[in-house]
Amino acid sequence: AKCAVVIVAAGSGQRLGQGVPKARVLLGGEPMLVHTVRGVVRSGIASQICIAVPAEDAAMEQICTKLVGEFGSKTDLQWSIVAGGADRAESVRAALSVLASDITTVLIHDAARPLTPAGVFDRVSHALRDGAKAVIPALAVVDTIKTVVPAGLPGTGAGVEKVSGTPARSRLRAIQTPQGFDVDTLRRAHEHAQSLDAASAALITDDAMLVEALGEDVYVVQGSTHSLKVTTPTDLLLAEAMLAGPLR
Ligand code: C5P
């Protein structure tokens, strides 16, 4: 079974507020994407690595060229760089369109998770080998999670939110990447997603939910606190500390 790893790196990184696409934000003096790609190569599971980058981003292309050079001697590894799309799912679809024909499983990984340990890649790929068509890494949540709806305060009508429900915390999981799939299953899921209206498409935040919509079982393996998604300036601080210190 041949495995491709897709790294989606075409996001804008607005929430990080550094004015450059997130995958280019520096971590330990190097672009975040460099750490993410090294982690994927180190896992040793990929026969193809496909990176979806922002369209017409010369700096990002340069980073990718350098990365391919760094690992170019690994001749059994095929590299593909594609222009991403307007949303994450479109970026994934762009990557799926260039996978080699002998690929049977695919892992979709956020560029924004630069410190994912090899063990997470291993657990995901083992579950695929054991017959899962979809598998995702997860952590138990520490916060109590509530759903909310828009509301007005009783006295003033001031626009706030109010609680509409509290799911049992013991059954909630925070989902990470890499998310692993049988390649045909993921292709079907994304084809199905293309028929969604804009409002539904805007609610797509990971690949597994598209596979769930097909009625396929999505299996869960243990994630890692080191696999955090660098989204806010606080996350960046934490990632710097993990990279530098004994936390790693
Ligand atoms: O926005 P969010 O944090 O969910 O993004 C998760 C990952 O998806 C990031 O690594 C980002 O670069 C990627 N992405 C993408 N194309 C987009 C939007 C996000 O590749 N249009």
From TrEMBL:
Short name of one Pfam family: IspD
Family: Belongs to the IspD/TarI cytidylyltransferase family. IspD subfamily.
Matching InterPro entries: IspD (IPR001228), IspD/TarI (IPR034683), IspD/TarI_cytidylyltransf_bact (IPR050088), ISPD_synthase_CS (IPR018294), Nucleotide-diphossugar_trans (IPR029044)
Gene encoding the protein: ispD
Site (Positions MEP for the nucleophilic attack): R169, K229
Name the record gives this protein: 2-C-methyl-D-erythritol 4-phosphate cytidylyltransferase
Associated pathway: Isoprenoid biosynthesis; isopentenyl diphosphate biosynthesis via DXP pathway; isopentenyl diphosphate from 1-deoxy-D-xylulose 5-phosphate: step 2/6
Site-annotated residues for Transition state stabilizer: R15, K22
Organism lineage: Bacteria, Bacillati, Actinomycetota, Actinomycetes, Micrococcales
